[in-house]
Write a structure and sequence with these properties.
Blueprint lengths: L2 H29 L4 H10 L2 H12 L7 H28 L10 E4 L9 E2 L11 E7 L8 H14 L5 E8 L3 H11 L8 E6 L1 H9 L12 E8 L5 E3 L6 H5 L10 E2 L3 H24 L9 H5 L1
Parallel strand pairs: 3-4, 4-5
Antiparallel strand pairs: 1-7, 2-5, 3-6, 6-7, 6-8
């Protein structure tokens, strides 16, 4: 959580709690024939708790005869105080903490624009200025719809509301009929405004695939279960070091992760989803002037 957000939420919660408790004290005072506004303002300036205690003690001529009632009231107020101030205390613990922000690695620079591709409506597509997830569905996208369904449910639906996010599914012209069927299935519940099927020649698809950093070849039917993340500056993003903590501790050889397997649920949920979140956080930091060029797991790579 960012420090500015912590401060804002702290003041919002504290103000709401203070006004509410002061209102309750003023209302209690009014019920006993005292001035509502006098006690309300006093609670705002000083604190609701000592004003309430003062009112409570002055209520009875013989305090000991009403000890049980006082205990019950104190319990109620204690619960209210805990409910309102516990989130504030939590934010106070978070606020002074220093977050080590790490960016998502650039694994390939300057991915070319996809000028040779057109959407179902005949429109051009653009990588520049968008955070794009690029995939290759091949000649028969309906024969293995798991690719598209996994990508939609685990990635597209999760980041749908983020600015400039898009999914680009590249397919050959020969797959248009199946793409129409798949598009209808994907749009069954809600229109996929930021999901675009883009058509190109077989050669254009092969060239687009080779522009990405990946060791796995494109299949003969022009499909791949690997998808790529491209940032707004047309750089391919991923992980230069994808080792687990245990692998780092055992000094295992460094290996990268430049693409994400859409048929592996764990890759999508635990890696790709986290990496896209990191990339969106990076852009928020840039807008606020807090951007750090520290790369992901940089200290581990130096070892």
């Amino acid at each position: 959580m960012e420090s500015e957000t912590n401060v804002l939420w702290y003041y919002i919660i504290y103000t709401i709690a203070l006004i509410y408790l002061s209102y309750k004290v003023g209302h209690y005072a009014q019920s006993k024939g005292r001035s509502f506004w006098l006690n309300f303002v006093a609670s705002i300036i000083l604190s609701p708790i000592p004003i309430f205690i003062t009112l409570k003690f002055s209520k009875f001529k013989n305090f000991h005869n009403h000890l049980d009632e006082i205990k019950e009231d104190i319990k109620k107020w204690t619960v209210l105080v805990v409910l309102f101030f516990l989130p504030v205390l939590f934010l106070l613990f978070l606020y002074p903490s220093k977050h080590n922000y790490e960016t998502l690695d650039i694994v390939q620079t300057n991915i070319p624009e996809l000028y040779d591709f057109k959407t179902l409506d005949g429109d051009s597509i653009q990588l520049e200025g968008h955070l794009s997830v690029v995939g290759f569905l091949g000649n028969s996208p309906m024969e293995d719809a798991t690719f598209a369904l996994n990508l939609k449910e685990l990635i597209y639906d999760k980041f749908l509301g983020f600015k400039r996010f898009q999914v680009l599914a590249l397919v050959p012209y020969s797959a248009k009929h199946q793409v129409l069927e798949l598009n209808k299935e994907l749009n069954a519940f809600a229109p996929l405004q930021y999901w675009k099927f883009a058509f190109g020649s077989d050669q254009a698809i092969r060239e687009a695939y080779t522009n990405f950093k990946i060791t796995r070849p494109l299949s003969l039917n022009l499909s791949s279960n690997q998808v790529f993340v491209v940032d707004r500056e047309r750089h391919q993003r991923g992980r230069l070091d994808d080792r687990t903590k245990s692998e780092i501790e055992s000094n295992a050889a460094v290996y990268p992760m430049t693409s994400y397997d859409v048929l592996e649920i764990s890759d999508l949920k635990n890696k790709m989803s986290d990496d896209i979140r990191i990339l969106f956080t990076e852009y928020r930091q840039k807008r606020k002037g807090n951007f750090s060029s520290t790369t992901r797991r940089a200290n581990d790579l130096k070892q």
